[in-house]
Task: structure prediction
Amino acid sequence: MAQIATHSHLGRPVNEEARALRREQILAGARVCFLRKGFHAASTAEISAEAKVSVANLYQYFPTKDDLVRALIDEELAGDLELIRIVEEAPSFRQGLEITTRMVTANREVAHDSRLRLEILAEAARNPAIAAVVKAADDQLVREIGAVIARYQAKGELRADFAPEVAARIIVSLFDGMTGRFAFGLSETEDLIVAADQFIVQALAPAAVSPSPTP
Amino acid sequence: MAQIATHSHLGRPVNEEARALRREQILAGARVCFLRKGFHAASTAEISAEAKVSVANLYQYFPTKDDLVRALIDEELAGDLELIRIVEEAPSFRQGLEITTRMVTANREVAHDSRLRLEILAEAARNPAIAAVVKAADDQLVREIGAVIARYQAKGELRADFAPEVAARIIVSLFDGMTGRFAFGLSETEDLIVAADQFIVQALAPAAVSPSPTP
Amino acid sequence: MAQIATHSHLGRPVNEEARALRREQILAGARVCFLRKGFHAASTAEISAEAKVSVANLYQYFPTKDDLVRALIDEELAGDLELIRIVEEAPSFRQGLEITTRMVTANREVAHDSRLRLEILAEAARNPAIAAVVKAADDQLVREIGAVIARYQAKGELRADFAPEVAARIIVSLFDGMTGRFAFGLSETEDLIVAADQFIVQALAPAAVSPSPTP
Amino acid sequence: MAQIATHSHLGRPVNEEARALRREQILAGARVCFLRKGFHAASTAEISAEAKVSVANLYQYFPTKDDLVRALIDEELAGDLELIRIVEEAPSFRQGLEITTRMVTANREVAHDSRLRLEILAEAARNPAIAAVVKAADDQLVREIGAVIARYQAKGELRADFAPEVAARIIVSLFDGMTGRFAFGLSETEDLIVAADQFIVQALAPAAVSPSPTP
DNA sequence: GATGAATGAGGGTTCATTCAT
DNA sequence: TATGAATGAACCCTCATTCAT
Result:
């Protein structure tokens, strides 16, 4: 695999590399524009201007505006799976959540990402092809988070009376919902995320020895 | 009678009722189209065709496509406040949630509504005017739900170590997030909502008498 | 003819009078709008708003926007013929011109009238029907001014080596040309008109005994 | 040669010449349509059809219909300044006028040009931006003609009791006025222009030695 | 007579996309 | 490869005009 870098100044590989760079350059421009105006309102002209590339050139990398959208969505969804690793390797559920939180919060502009996610969801709501992609990513996310929960349930760290995947879905929903709020400043970002962590931990905390009213 | 129409002989009188009907008719068509294609992709021609109205006529009721969007958003957001009444008058927090759940679930097509909400959020992320409207509605919703929570906290029915408005925001986020999932069939509607209710109740349940205060 | 006034509160005549009033009311509104935007850009909606009349009502008086234009043009051209009387009854050609000048200058906003004339000419350049009307009015104007000139030529007050109608055409052209300038403030109104009078008088002054270079 | 095209390998080079040709092609189509219908009534579709160009292509050369109008006006006004040179280099004022006359008359369809001028004036009467352009061209024209007149006055070829610029304004007005008549055949073109020349010459002729200075 | 309500036919402009160099 | 040049199909909106009351 170091191959690619090695051949960097030979015949084809250079082009491959150059192509990949251009692709990213275009995608970056597209991200900016889609963020600013949404998938539909952003024009290919605008995007190629932002990417400092000619329109015709753009079409050599993405034969359709839809392809551009799809590529950006793929890129975006791929980022999610990173988070899972983090939670997976955390010493406790609570700490996993906290780390995730810090990642998401610290990460560059959360609001920007939020807007894009919103746009993606909206697009998925109409375009079945997009919906399929989103669903696939979501399924994986839910499955893996569910697995993590199941593990912690087994350890007794989390209450066991919640189907792991259901809990996962609720957690993902909660984060998605907050994302929507951040997208246009409905709430203070960090505060809400921290509180949400606490909320989740409490909801899933092992049932205290039950009120135990009797002797 | 009683001089309602003072325009004795000044021409055809305004028919407020017919106008209101037309307005709804158009809004209904718009809803269908916006649902199908989104705010941007749905054309005024398409909308007026769906509403069985001429384009020019549509423009006599909504001077701008944006006005149409805004009207639909207003209508949609107004629906939220109904839910608050329900929770407010419930005998317990848990039952309030349950009733809400049943309302939302049983109510007409949840998915449809969900799509529209998604579209609204996405639009708000770009259009500051829309964002303001959404924010206003959201503020009210959060404030009122927060008040309800505060009341139940006072009664000891909910744990007191959560700022009411923060809890409210989390709950609203959670519902919004689920809404996004329903929008294109990411999850089974009813199951998830029921589980979410339980999740919320547990998160806010009064701290169990802590492990063992007994003798 | 006092008849009309006499019958003013009987059956038909009242209506006739009312109709005429409305007509003028609408024409006045039309004049304002046409002045502001030109014949094409001024909409019937705008005109009827300006005239404080419903659009449908406007159409009962002028079955077509073109009819409205035509009526306004007729009204405008009719004004020209008044000027002729003045010149006709003047004691000398020079004084006739001066009086005309004063009339035109003193008259209400010259610029406004100028704009309308311009609009009329431009319309005539495309619409043969309008062109015919304008041509008829112009012919009459030229003919009558030509007659006046011929009279003064006979008196020896003006040089005789100019065909009267040709001179008339030049004079009318000159005034039309100045009108165009006034229309949007190209020149100082009054100064130019006064100078033009002098210009005309000198051009038509009887040939001085010719330089008479020799004894 | 000589490195004119620095874009060695950056894609298809700009073909300035072809662009200029297209521009003229479009302007020519526009001129025809504007002549036929006027600035407002001529549609961009019509113009691009006349110019054998797609509408979208037209918009790549003129981003707005208004720009098209403006370009045509600029072109038209630029033609005026040619005339000045001619008068300037004439051996006498009279001959300068005659040459101008012949130019204007012989020149391509005078009537067409006249219509366009009319349209321009009418447009200027409403659109301040256009008015400014027209005024600038007119100022220059008047100033330069005024200078010519002043020169001939100094030579004693023209009477000195007329402010040069005022005389210039009158002359321009006269030509403008005739232009308006030609625009739709109100008068015979050539005859009137010739007579106007004589008219001007007489008006500006040096005061004859006054009736009788002889012994 | 006068107004409110409705509409078909465009009008200017933009866009995703293709062709040529 | 990468750019300039071109286009058909829409899109939002307006207008002159008619119909109903």
